[in-house]
Amino acid sequence: MVILLVKRGDQNQFLYETKVENAVDDVVKDITAIFNGRLKVTRICYEMDELQKHGTFLPHEMQGLTEDQIKELKLEDPWAKRCAPQDYVLQKDEMGRRCGYAPPPHLQDVLKRAMETAKDMISKKRVDLRQCLTQKDVARALDELRGATKIVFPAGLPPHDPVRMELDNVEDLTGTQASKEVIDPSRACLWACGKKFINGNKLSDHLGKNDKSKVTVKLCSNSEGAPGREPVMTEEERKQLMLHAYRKQEEWKKLEKDDDDSYLDSKWADGKNLKRQFHGLDNIAWRPGMKK
């Protein structure tokens, strides 16, 4: 099996295991699904954090309004109490996006544990642990979040709540930063060694037939053009090289300033020392008045 280190830009994303006999189209499709799935889990965890703090999402026409404005316009959230968890606590949302009927502390812990588990399943740390990621791992992370939501909100979430929309795959990311991060599967492509993988080919056409190798690939969109090449050395290696060069430079500076020649008085610097040793003259001392 060949291992692909999938990168987006300069950041490691995940490891992907495949065979060189597989078609490029299938590999790109699978990698893109995993990449977009990880983004989905991240978005859900962000919204779920707000969900456990302030309850369900308000209808769009009520968001951002003060209580006085809501009363004046005679607006009402029909889903707030219907979907509120058991023994809910009131936690007003200062941003005016959620109803304020938050789960009690022990149910908040259920959501927190689910978020931590889901994040660990798709974490970038798996690259350092040499653990490959699959669509099944992403599905398990989504199931973990879905199950926790059903436990805390047995009546379900409003149809307009971002968490429910994400879990139902009906989210609308138009006009958001998240929409720029998602890659369209029909326009996705892979690059390695400065060359683009061509649809219709097999991986072996680009990576050779060695099925026991590890290759760094970059996931891009066709509209982005060729990605930047990988640096010759890592940032840490570059820092260590610069530190070594600086130390050598400082050593040479010290040697240039040191003009002390007192070392010439040492025995090891005396060229006739060995001759005196052979003649037994190396341990002779004399001064006036000294008796033999």
Summary tags:
292 residues; alpha+beta; two-stranded antiparallel ribbon; 11 helices; 42% helix; 12% strand
Short description:
The protein is of the alpha+beta class.
Write the layout of secondary structure elements.
Layout: E1 2-8, E2 11-18, H1 24-54, H2 67-72, H3 80-83, E3 89-90, E4 101-102, H4 105-121, H5 125-128, H6 135-152, H7 162-167, H8 177-181, E5 188-192, E6 195-196, H9 204-207, E7 214-221, H10 235-257, H11 273-278
Parallel strand pairs: 1-7
Antiparallel strand pairs: 1-2, 3-4, 5-6, 5-7
Helix pairs in contact: 1-4, 1-6, 4-6
Structural description of this entry:
The structure is a single chain. The protein is an alpha+beta fold. The protein contains 11 helices and 7 strands. The protein has helices at 24-54, 67-72, 80-83, 105-121, 125-128, 135-152, 162-167, 177-181, 204-207, 235-257, 273-278; strands at 2-8, 11-18, 89-90, 101-102, 188-192, 195-196, 214-221. The strands form 2 sheets. It has a 5-stranded mixed beta sheet. A two-stranded antiparallel sheet has the order 3-4. Strand 5 and strand 6 form a beta hairpin. Helix 1 packs antiparallel against helix 4 (105-121) and helix 1 (24-54) runs parallel beside helix 6 (135-152). The longest helix is centred in the first third of the chain and has 31 residues, at 24-54. The protein is elongated, with a radius of gyration of 34 Å. The termini are far apart. The mean pLDDT is 88.
